[in-house]
From TrEMBL:
It comes from Agaribacter flavus. It catalyses: L-proline(in) + Na(+)(in) = L-proline(out) + Na(+)(out). This is Sodium/proline symporter. The chain crosses the membrane at residues 6-21, 71-89, 121-144, 156-177, 184-205, 225-247, 268-292, 312-342, 363-383, 389-410, 417-443, 455-474. The lineage of its organism: Bacteria, Pseudomonadati, Pseudomonadota, Gammaproteobacteria, Alteromonadales. It is a multi-pass membrane protein. Catalyzes the sodium-dependent uptake of extracellular L-proline. The gene is putP. InterPro entries: Na/Glc_symporter_sf (IPR038377), Na/Pro_symporter (IPR011851), Na/solute_symporter (IPR001734), Sodium:Solute_Symporter (IPR050277).
Length: 494
């Protein structure tokens, strides 16, 4: 019965891809941004679903097992960051990108913000997107592999391959319209699942006190967690919210919305969805700890607690629907990442530097080849199968947040930003994150990321570098300043 539910889900996703192919993939603007005609509710759930991914249903509940209530701080940071993204970035990015010669990608916006079609900044930004999204996509495939192993006793490799094949098919066919529409459907499925699972699991206990006493045999009580928290832990956890400003697969949704006037509706809808789903994920993890301790549930991998609940608490037909929610979370993010990566390969590397006169049909074909190329590399990384979902996501999240987050904010709010400052910010942010992760700089041989989330120093270094380099280099030209002032005026008028 579970297989029937999943088969129907797969068929629906492919059907949406075919619909997108027939209606909105005639030129590159349609393929990568849906012609900037996406409604607010689809924008909100598309941003949310592509943001949360498999870590929402697997990584975050699993973090409750390992970290206890410290995981709540990550959730709080994410909620604050998402809200700030809607307020600070969404309206201005929608106007600025269209006014900057209709920039279709983040690297194109960075370049055209300085009245350039090509250059080091565009190529460098595209390279960062392809590298970090390949890592990010592999995290989603790891989640898909774990799902098939845990739920169907299938091989990890089969899970990875099936997950990737379905996503690649509908992304190749329908582009942004298919991805956004499937995200909306997947977001609805995730919402229902993250309400249903913790509620049903809770009613297996006699009282709230029984849940708490069972859970606190493995994790410290909330009062203990608050007492033991350090400043570094607090900052590192809340800093997850900083990453939102630099996530191309999320902020590109703001570029595609119909109008700035639709953003408040998208914000209300999106933040409500996010609050409920994050609370559901945390509750799944907390009740999962209690259930394992109280009922002796065998759990080899904490990141699969949601999947185990679907098996032991629900009829196979309902279980199939809930497993589809896990796949929905995984696929929504993978498809968004593949599309943004392909857009950068096509628009920011191939078309910008190799063949500017490439026709619309040829450009879409190159974009589809880009999707396939990134997918293959991510597949090879995922087949190693030795990484946790949360660790892979946290590294990629930090990389984008530090490399692009400060530059997005400076591009939208700082008229004195210079081209040299922008390049320096991307380079310094990306390098800082990689150094924090891989270079043992501390006296005990540990890396900085062992004691602090690498996004914190990366974001700070990138911000300081952008400001200092822009301050000490020649200011922007009159044409660049005029573009900034004109875009700012258009924002205030809408």
């Amino acid at each position: 019965m579970s297989y029937i539910s999943l088969s129907l889900y797969f068929a629906a996703m492919i059907g949406i891809g075919v619909y997108g192919y027939k209606t909105a993939s005639k030129d590159i603007s349609d393929y990568v941004l849906g012609g900037r005609k996406v409604g607010p509710k689809v924008t909100a759930l598309s941003a949310g679903a592509s943001d949360m991914s498999g870590w929402m249903l697997m990584g975050l509940p699993g973090a409750m097992f390992v970290m206890g209530f410290d995981a709540i701080l990550i959730a709080v940071g994410l909620l604050m960051g998402a809200l700030a993204n809607y307020i600070l970035v969404a309206p201005r990015l929608r106007v600025f990108t269209e006014n900057a010669d209709n920039a279709l990608t983040i690297p194109a916006f960075f370049s055209k913000r300085f009245k350039r079609d090509t250059g080091t900044l565009r190529l460098l930004s595209a390279a960062v997107i392809v590298v970090f999204f390949t890592l990010y996509t592999s995290a989603g495939l790891v989640a898909g592999g774990k799902l098939f192993v845990s739920a169907f006793d299938a091989s990890y490799t089969m899970g990875v391959v099936v997950t990737l094949a379905i996503v690649v098919l509908y992304t190749l066919l329908g582009g942004f319209l298919a991805v956004s529409t499937t995200d909306f459907v997947q977001g609805c499925i995730m919402f229902v699942a993250l309400v249903m699972v913790p509620v049903v699991a809770f009613f297996q206990f006699d009282s709230v006190e029984q849940v708490a006493s069972s859970a606190f045999t493995s994790i410290p009580a909330f009062s203990e967690s608050i007492r033991d928290i350090t400043l570094i832990t607090l900052v590192s956890s809340l800093a997850w919210g900083l990453g939102y400003f630099g996530q191309p697969h999320i902020i590109v949704r703001f570029m595609a919305i119909k109008s700035v006037k639709d953003i408040p509706t998208a914000k209300s809808f999106g933040m409500s969805w996010m609050l409920v789903t994050i609370l559901g994920a945390l509750a799944t993890g907390f009740i999962g700890v209690a259930y394992v301790n109280n009922f002796g549930l065998v759990l080899s991998d904490p990141e699969t607690i949601f999947i185990r609940f679907t098996e032991v608490l629900f009829h196979p037909l309902i279980s199939g629907f809930l497993l589809a929610a896990v796949l929905a979370a995984i696929m929504s993010t993978i498809s968004s990442q593949l599309l943004v990566s392909a857009s950068s390969l096509t628009e920011d590397i191939y078309r910008a530097f190799h063949n500017k006169n490439l026709g619309n049909k040829q450009t879409v074909i190159i974009g589809r080849l880009g999707v396939a190329g990134v997918a293959i590399v991510a597949l090879l990384l995922a087949l190693r199968g030795d990484s946790s979902i949360l660790s892979l996501v946290s590294n990629a999240w930090a990389g984008f947040g530090a490399a692009f987050g400060p530059l997005i904010l400076f591009s939208l709010y700082y008229s004195r930003l210079t081209y040299a400052g922008a390049i320096s910010g991307v380079v310094s942010g990306a390098i800082a994150v990689l150094v924090c992760i891989y270079v043992p700089l501390l006296v005990d041989g540990n890396t900085i990321s062992d004691v602090m989330y690498e996004l914190v120093p990366g974001f700070a270094i990138s911000s300081i570098t952008i400001f200092l380099v822009s301050h000490f280099t020649a200011g922007p030209s009159r044409a660049v300043e005029s573009l900034y002032q004109q875009s700012s005026k258009l924002v205030s008028e809408q």
